[in-house]
Fold this protein.
Amino acid sequence: MKTSTIAVQIGVGKDATGAMSFPIYQNATFRHPALGQSTGYDYSRSGNPTRRVLEEGIAQLDGGVRGFAYASGMAAIANLLLLFKQGDHLVVTEDLYGGTFRIIDKVFARQGLEATYVDTSDANRVAEAIRENTRAVLLEVPTNPLLKVADIRKIGDIAKDRRILTIVDNTFLTPYLMRPLDLGADVVVYSATKFISGHNDVLAGLVVVKEEELGKQVYFLQNSIGAVLGPQDCWLTIRGLKTLSVRIDRQLENAKTIAEWLSRHAGVTRVYYPGLETDPSHRLLGEQARGFGAMVSFEVAEKRIAEEVLRKVKLISFAESLGGVESLITFPAFQTHADMEPAERERMGINDRLLRLSVGIEDAGDLLADLEQAISGWEANV
Ligand SMILES: *Cc1c(COP(=O)(O)O)cnc(C)c1O
């Protein structure tokens, strides 16, 4: 079955009452039939029916053996990082989500976890950064906010040779557009807050693993730590997933229109969107994914122009986050990536002229009109 069909059918036929919408089991504990017997549920941290439907659903969507739902994307990532111990080393995408950088650099570093940040769009740099104590490669594909693309097949092979894990944060593409486990990754992680739930109304994180043995370890940590997704939020995430394919199809179409329009605009100095044929990642992402995503980053000539654009947009909201049905715009250097050293940020290209759009499902003409009134008038400065 295709991912669009699997997503719509999540939970259908799973409840004894025949409920089309799988119920919210708002419940902490479960009565035991007798000593030594269980209905399959004992206590909701260990397992909850609504959460299970979501966890099985995402596992099926990604072609993995087991899925896990967490209270947020960061809770999911924290859980994965706890697979490692003091003295272990990770190779990590350099321009990754600011919160992931922060938890590795400021929280897990204190526990003795080491990390090297590299441009993972160059597989050779990944290979060079692997050391004796390296335990995993953590990739974001495409990266945030520069939308660079790592070759998951190639890096997965390198990692397998060295017997280390390949973990892919697939938040930007979702299983509808890319299935990292099919490409050779061992683990996929999501901020389901973004495209997966899709409505800017819930925080959630998901993990899918390819092998049962790793699944047991992740489950042990999920149950030990307890940062699980509550039943109500599981239900919202399931409901979001049902419309994943139609939302994303529309978002892809809008993103392409906007990226092409921006690349022709005299007030815009640079556009980052892998869907543009001129983008350095176009070919590689085309081989790995069924679509290029709905994130578009662009540069204007000066910081004050970027500030002006943020002030002038009306339909597009100046807000953090991404992936929802409403279009949003952010200023990465001052928001999502504020925890990085300014010089380091600048070197990578996350400068004070770079804006990032998360393209929603509004009418493309209305979005272009909003951008036009916000950007126009600055052409002379370019
Ligand atoms: C938002 C995001 C996260 C963190 O997820 P939360 O749900 O906000 O905790 C991790 N990775 C990426 C790529 C993200 O966009």
Observations:
- Residues 3-242 form a domain with the Aspartate Aminotransferase; domain 2 fold (CATH 3.40.640.10).
